[in-house]
Design goal:
By secondary structure, the protein is α+β, with helices and mostly antiparallel strands. The chain contains 5 helices and 8 strands, in the order αβββααβαβαβββ. An 8-stranded mixed β-sheet has the order 3-2-1-4-5-7-6-8, sandwiched between helices.
Length: 181
């Protein structure tokens, strides 16, 4: 049995048995004893459906897979993602009450990739939180940019950018703020 299959079997059991914390603080309210992230990448064709936190503890192997999944696909560079960002993403997804995975457009970005994107678009920050592993750009086919942004803003966990023209939402664990339309 592979590690992924074992984690999947364990996760299925944990999901069925996990109670929820209805009085949890902030964006974790309603998050329960587990945290799960579901994403796919149109660039690499990869998918992830991973329980990465159970009963107050991050699962080391699951976090490692999330970090790899959110790598800079242009350079194959991997960085440890700030788990606060992953928590915000998971909590917002939970609030949206969808089964559809996020489409990850951008997670970690190497300085080289960020500089290249910045040369092509004025919307890319010079000191982007993507380079620190603290941000993600996401899309859902079944929800609008405004719906996604409202869910992320409700988490009160960091920055939320609406990019309606490009149909994605930026979520980060930086200072609480929002922008875009």
């Amino acid at each position: 049995m592979t590690r992924r299959a074992l984690l999947g079997a364990f996760a299925a059991t944990a999901v069925a048995a996990a109670p929820t914390y209805s009085k949890a603080a902030g964006f974790l309210r309603g998050g329960g004893d587990i945290r799960r992230i579901k994403m796919y990448s149109g660039r690499t064709g990869e998918r992830i459906d991973m329980i990465y936190w159970i009963e107050g503890k991050y699962i080391k192997d699951a976090v490692k897979e999330v970090n790899y999944f959110m790598r800079d696909w242009r350079t194959d560079g991997v960085k440890s993602m700030d788990l606060r960002t992953v928590d915000i993403m998971a909590a917002a997804h939970n609030l949206l009450d969808v089964n559809e995975p996020y489409m990850l457009l951008s997670g970690y970005r190497s300085p080289k990739t960020n500089a290249m994107l910045r040369s092509r678009s004025r919307g890319v920050a010079k000191n982007s939180l993507h380079m620190k592993g603290q941000a993600a750009d996401l899309r859902l086919g079944s929800r609008s940019v405004n719906q996604m942004a409202r869910a992320a803003i409700a988490c009160h966990g960091g920055g939320v950018g609406r990019y309606s023209g490009s149909n994605f939402v930026h979520m980060d664990c930086g200072v609480v703020r929002s922008w875009g339309g």
